[in-house]
Design goal:
- By secondary structure, this protein is mostly beta strands.
- The strands form seven sheets. A four-stranded antiparallel β-sheet has the order 1-28-27-26, with no helix packed on it.
Amino acid sequence: MSVSELKERHAAATETVNNLRDRLIQRRLQLLDTDVAKYTAAQGRSPVKFGATDLVCCRTLQGHTGKVHSLDWTLESNRIVSASQDGRLIVWNALTSQKTHAIKLPCAWVMTCAFSPNGQTVACGGLLDSVCSIFSLSSTADKDGTVPVSRMLSGHKGYVSCCRYVPNDDAHLITSSGDQTCVLWDVTTGLKISVFGGEFQSGHTADVLSVSISESNPTRFITGSCDTTARLWDTRDASRAVGTFHGHKGDVNTVKFFPDGHRFGTGSEDGTCRLYDIRTGHQLQVYQPQGDGESLPVTSIAFSASGRLLFAGYANNNTCYVWDTFLGEVVLDLGELQDSHKNRISCLGMSADGSALCTGSWDSNLKIWAFGGHRRVI
């Protein structure tokens, strides 16, 4: 069989697969006769109400001199690491606002950072070097703030967009990249364990932008990509994605597992957040701001401890909507509160105990928001 004939057969097979995929998506849409919001409203549930002091800015973390791109909490919810365009990682005491470490990075174009589960190391990655660097917080810095790199995870062929430690496992970490792949690393040796995507047909077909690992089942993780899809993976089988989730019309900038581990949320360049169920593969709800204006890209999302609230940052000034996930309504905008950010909120994260939310912004500051009046959302 000639090369031209093989190409024709491949093109025909590809078209057949795409047609079947489109038919499957349309069939799923036909089966979706309701969504979470319609069902909840039919049960007579009312949206969450916020008073003037129910969510307040209790700390402003100042120290960066460039845009803040990423942040992460420790499991103890008492420290935060942030990465900024100023080329530094800063570790903060979330209770006192004091800086405990200021690490000067070899490459200033950092995009992501993460705390290890034991809180003893931090990881970061970025645009230019395509490397995920590991720093030990017990290492001594020189007078310029330079901390020696304890491990460099090198192997991606594109920028490192996101890195996350496997829950309760300091020795393993997952990175996503602009080379369309994710990699599971052995941090102790610096070697790859598994590569997800790439030459496999079930992998992403464009840059992978975000990773979220399930707390309840650490062998599973979700990825979001510029190919407009989110995909579910299992670390025990890197040869294929467990599931592919459609619905977005733009890049999927951010993904986050729901607290129960059975669902996950996404935020996209198309201006919507969506909630999916990994057991059925169905989309449960779309969270889209009302209005006739231009759709605002979603930059980052986080769920409250119970999952009742979805926090979403948008690429428009200081907008950060708080959604009631049951009713699909905006119940609060952090940008309208006192002491809010002065520029785009680029990243956000909920503390492990659910007591506080941290937001990072292009105004070079981070802010910690706490539920006032001893209130805890359920």
